[in-house]
Amino acid sequence: MSRHQARKRFGQNFLVDAQVINQIASLFDNTVLDEHTLIEIGPGRGALTEALLRNNQALTAVELDKDLIPILQTKFSHHRQFELYQGDALRADFSELSKGLPLRLVGNLPYNVATPLIFILLENIENIIDMHFMLQWEVVARLCAKPGDAHFGQLSLVVQNLCETRAMFNVPPSAFSPAPKVESGFIALTPRAEPLVKKELHGGFNKIVKISFMHRRKTLRNNLKGILTEQQIADVGIDPGARAETLNIENYAALAELTA
Question: What value does the mean pLDDT take over residues 4-26?
Fold first, then answer.
């Protein structure tokens, strides 16, 4: 296999559409050096990397595929502000990569790591300015979903508690090489000044949300059995016979209060 080809085991689909690339890069046109660290996750062959560096951005790229490292080094070694980290973003120390500055993150994320990576980044949310990611459209829909939507679930609630989510634009399979079998979307995640749920409740909130959605077709009384009684659920104004996707974030915060 040529080192230039995408590898299925890494979930690689390289972004090749110049219009989409420039649209993403333009979001970082007004970057001021020394105020934050910009990290690109999964640069691949460096198409977006090149567009970002065109504006003399300081940029750190995190790439897992070691066969792409020499390609990236050859293309960008002349940029004084470019640094390359070979390793798995799921195991990267973002506090170290940040160099003590707030983070801005951008990337065309492999579909198989996008959700776990977002959960990891949420653990460092206080040091993040924003995140802009290319994701499978279904994941974008889940991140932006509201109560009652088919895509609304654990991911929606946990992320929206901490971030404002904005689906920016759809991206067709033809924008990638090789073309994926699904639509993609570009999303902006901006950390809230304060989470919607009190910080001291986050552990209970995340637990209640996870358990509530463990069996989507079951009611709250069944999913939360052994944790909260029907009466406790009813006492905070929630129907014990409701299903998880009908509750909003305030409802889950109220349930978390009961377990605190």
Answer: 78
Q: Report the C-alpha gap between 76 and 79 in whole angstroms.
A: 6
Q: Is the pLDDT assigned to residue 1 strictly greater than 60?
A: no
Per-residue pLDDT, 23: 95
The fourth-level CATH superfamily of domain 8-191 is Vaccinia Virus protein VP39 (3.40.50.150)
Q: Which of 90, 102, 259, 118 is nearest to 187 (CA)?
A: 118
What are all long-range contacts of 67-72, with beta carbons under 8 Å and residues at least 24 apart?
67/3, 68/3, 68/43, 68/44, 71/3, 71/4, 71/45, 71/46, 72/43, 72/45, 72/46
- CATH 1.20.140.10: does it fit domain 199-259? no
Residue 250 is encoded by which pair of tokens? 């305030």
Do domains 8-191 and 199-259 share one topology? The answer is: no
Q: Are 55 and 30 in contact (CB under 8 A)?
A: no
- Going from N- to C-terminal start, the domains of the chain cover 8-191, 199-259
Q: Above pLDDT 70, what percent of the chain?
A: 93
**46 bridge partner residues:** none
Its pTM stands at: 0.91
| Separation between Cα atoms, residue 35 and residue 235, nearest integer Å | 48
* The residue to which tokens 């994701």 are assigned: 135
Give SS3 for 164: strand
